[in-house]
Queue: 4 jobs
Job 1
Amino acid sequence: MIRGNVFLLLLLMTLISCTTKDDVVEVQPKGLLNEIEGGWVLTTRIVQYEGETFVEDLRVEQCDSYNSYSFENDQDLQLQSFDSENDCQAVLVQKKWELDSTTKILEVTEVATSYKVVYKVEEVSKKHLKLKILSEGGDQLEGTGFDVYLILVK
């Protein structure tokens, strides 16, 4: 028994002594912010209600394109959407975005109209972003029985 404990102690000491400062990854406050910055394509909406899940492909079919978002590091956000009624011309909408990295709350406000949508960042990786809509234009979705998610990809 003592021999086993000594072996375990030596193994632990070896592992600890081999760890360098380079092996330690610290989570920076801007980590989530850095993951979200950049260009994203809005591909899917998922609606969950009363145990049912509905998945919608958000491709603008007439234009064979998806709307895209560009989250810039100065909190500017450009939405590029396609007008299917106007020869699929690209339309740019200026927005502002603000992220609370602690609560993972993302607020997106249209510059021209001050229309605000509040999201919670559910998942984020280098190629995948899942947002839950908490409120839209002041209307709360929380507590309504509906959960609405947007899926964006790089």
Job 2
Amino acid sequence: MPPRLPRRLLAALPLLAAAPALTTALTTAPALAAPDGSLRRVREAGVLRLGVQVEGTAAASRAADGSLRGYLPQLGSRIAAGLGVRPDFVPVPRGDMLGLLLQGAFDLGLGGAIASTHVALTALLTTPVMQFQLVVLTHRNLVIRGMSELLGRPVGVVEGRSFAAALREAGLEPRRIVTHANWEGAAGALLRREEDALIVPAYHVPEIQRVAPEATARFTLGDFWHCGVVRFGEHDLLRAIDVLLYLLRHEGELPGLHRAFFDRELRAGRTL
């Protein structure tokens, strides 16, 4: 069953149906900026291609029948419905979100791009769609109480260029960063004591502790945000998506969805 749209979101559909009117009314550039055709392209195709990392977490996972479930597929379906098109989800390997976006593999990337200077120099960012904390895990026999104690220690992270950039912007420069292709590999390395600490988004922690009960959360590196990403030059599509996200937030549906999957609020503002 398609997601039910809030009343004000339904009222906005006529606005979204007309790309030139949307561009003129909502642009933050000069009022006479010409439409770039990106929103029209999506609406004429009748489909919004959505890049999503599927990692078996609350953000996105596969059901037994192969269908996608989780916060990002639910959000992507709502955005597509608001544009009057159907969603088409494109699974994205970890670390490939920006590269595949630039190659034209999908129209909108959801997740897999932490808001950072690196990402902002590569693609256009939507307003934040997902808020989380980066959590420092250690083996239960090793107590580390703060970032200063990480310096000089080998630290494991999960692969992703925007993730690495976010860590640098948070001030973390340990002696040696070991990159793992997925959270399962990172958990195994921590169990084998190959690294002293592991830094992962909070939504990975339950899965890691399920397979590695010795992994103990010590502290967090603050709040970070995932933003949707679109290609440079596709301002029409970006503005339409941001209007929809505003309406979903204003009606309470976006905060409610975020709370249901992550048990925490999606607040305004950012630390990066």
Job 3
Amino acid sequence: MAGSLEHKITAVLSQLQASTQYSKWMQAHGHYRGPFTLPTRKSGAFQKSKDWKESVFAKMIEALWNNDGYRLIFINGEFHSQLSDSIEGVDILRFEQGHNETVTPNAIAELVDAIAKDGLWINVPAKRHIDKPIYLLHCNDGKVGEVASVRHHIKVNEQSSCQLVEHYISLMDANGLTLSRLSTEIGDGAQFEHVKLIEEGRNQEHLAHNDMIIGRDANAKSSTFLLSGRFISHQLSGELCHPASEVSLNSLVLPMSGECFDTRTFLHHGAPRCQSEQLHKIVAQGESLAVFDGMIYVNQVAQKTDGQMNNHNLLLGEKSQVNTNPKLEIYADDVKCSHGATIGQIDPEQVFYLQARGISKLLAQQIIMKAFAAQVAGKVSMDNVRQYVLQRIEQRLESV
């Protein structure tokens, strides 16, 4: 099964090979390309403001995270400053090539670096607290064969704190491809929380790679939610390269029939006295396929490491498939590390317990499924984002 997934990724990348020679980034060397206009299905720009106000993008943007934080808005892979918010004291520039290092190099990261249309470089100064979350909101109509590719980098300097939400959403009938990559530098003593939401159309595909490099005494958290799309491949790589840092990596994957979701993590413990905690869950419905592959790598110098990784999977269909492969590679001799994985269906004893208290069988099953998935949502500290995720979980599971 792993071979078929690899073949799928290879096939998608092969289809994109011709796109690299047309990359605007490569032609412009990453420099600013002037003001952007709003897109239309015919000309690429709405000529009248009425067209924009009545467009599905305007309605989508109005409904998402309005007044909840600082929104930086992308439409079909291009940044629109006139629709976005400014953040006092924070440098926001167009991303330029040169920040292409990855914790674990792979084809997806290199592809995004090569052909990304647009992206932002965000710099949070030292000792600065960002009072509201930053939302990187990406809206995509997903025309057939269209590629929307973005490359972001955020630097959270020493003793600063920041919350960042990446949200990718496309129209229900989208039939294209999204490429995304975010790299993060977290300075000494900094606090950083990251949430990634992927909600693609039923025929849209999404390939993504995120990196986190974490400084001394820093604390980082990343929660990824793969909610919809035909094929999603997401890798998150982290490096604890200075002593006494902490990181929490979490993910929730909710594939339905005909969908294939692949999530992978790689965490490098490269310094002593660091702690890591991971919780990854999959709820597979119908004839869906999901993959989890996780690695904790403990360097020889990383003594006193505490690294925990758990993967739990719930199968809701007779033909649902989940492949899980958590791994540890340890070269230090004074560590506390563990990993574990479970796969199963709804426990009939739990259903019976609820039925004995007057709850119908169907409602009991719904309660168990939602509680199972909601544990990951509970890792998100932002109330509005957590509530949004819980609503999406309920919508995805209501038809079971």
Job 4
Amino acid sequence: MPQNLSEMPQNLSDAERQARNCNTAMKTLSSMPPSLCDAQKQARNCGLDIPKLEALLAEIEPLSEKYEILFYLAATGLYSADDLAEMFNHSSGKNLNADFNKNLGSHLKLYLDLDDSDRLGITSLRRILFKKGYLLDINDDELVRVLPTRYAENSQTEQSFTVRQN
């Protein structure tokens, strides 16, 4: 849950602004890894629920700051394994994926209640966090109510027209 309501997008344009902020943050990031605070800020700008993620990470045995930063950056869904490998001066994306799985992924699988057959890696992390409810709900209730209203209006319009056969 956001710490205050001003952090939650209020409508679609806020969600769009949030996505733009997310993309801008990615482009402005140098090849050096950001601080933990900056990685969390980037994740927040991409719609992640930071307090819930902090609680999840607290359940896992103590992680180095490097892996916490890696977790938040991977959770944004903006970076490939190769991008992160370059950022962290790792030999390759393939090796970084293996390290991620060994140091973080295997523990996350337990706390996220994933099957052994489910893969949890750098590229799948955001999708899994989304499925498990770790992203903020950015739907505007007013926009959600539009569909049933339009459906009712369309049904009435269809009933007023008669089909003529030749």
